[in-house]
Amino acid sequence: MNLGIEGKWALVCAASKGLGKGCAQALVEEGVHVVITARGAEALQATAAELRALNPAVQVRAVAGDITTPEGRAAALAACPQVDILVNNAGGPPPGDFRDWTRDDWIKAVDANMLAPIELIKATIDGMAERGFGRIVNITSGAVKAPIDVLGLSNGARSGLTGFVAGLARQVRVASRNVTINNLLPGVFDTDRVRGMAKGTAAKTGQSVDEIVAGRAAGLPARRLGTAAEFGATCAFLCSAQAGYLTGQNVLIDGGSYPGTF
User: Fold this and answer.
1) Distance, C-alpha 230 to centroid of its chain
2) What is the pLDDT of residues 127-162, one digit of tens each?
3) Distance between CA atoms of 165 and 131, rounded to whole angstroms?
4) Are 240 and 180 in contact (CB under 8 A)?
5) In the list 38, 53, 169, 204, which could disulfide-bond 181, CB 3.0-4.6 Å?
6) Nearest to 49 by CA among 30, 25, 19, 13
7) What is the rounded distance in angstroms from the CA atom of residue 1 to the CA atom of residue 12?
8) What is the per-residue DSSP string for 158-182?
């Protein structure tokens, strides 16, 4: 399927690794020019080189910086001639017990996982509406649908973003101008983050990282972890011309883990 987005410009946040990288790859394969961001300059430049090799016909610009800060957002936006597609993404806050969290912990989580995406939306959505095309995809978490008790900071901040998006996406001046806003809710994917967490568990239990990852996979109906490539393909479809009637939705991609009907 030709997704009808060749020649568009996308800003993909936290795209040097994992799910953000998967989204950038899928968009580049569709002929989309991308600006990718991440805090680690070395990994970011390596990913940029991979993307250029994947499709030499597109422009790939890499901007190292922290997208959760005003300076990081300003640098990323300045590198993008126009933002037709925005993929919001940022690492989640650490797990823990809410009794141990301070006000500063909450503010940091809300800044990174709610307010930073909203600021990028605010900076780009009116231009999208004026041009008559815009796609915004927020990478949140399956925990928004089925909260995980130790991820309270993430549950709260990402749920706040979800509620905000639900109202904004349905505004007539947004939806009637072919601008859509959707959220992608990942379950467990085979990423560096997941393997890094498995490494920490391995050090405590004596199991190998592969054994721990296999154990997590065995607990999923799909009996495997998701891949960044298939996550990116779903993101690319949400950004497509064909997805213009799909907005304000939370798309759960978790290998069947969520047990509910709705």
Assistant:
1) 13
2) 999 999 999 999 999 999 999 999 999 999 999 999
3) 21
4) no
5) 169
6) 25
7) 22
8) HHHHHHHHHHHTT-HHHHTTTEEEE
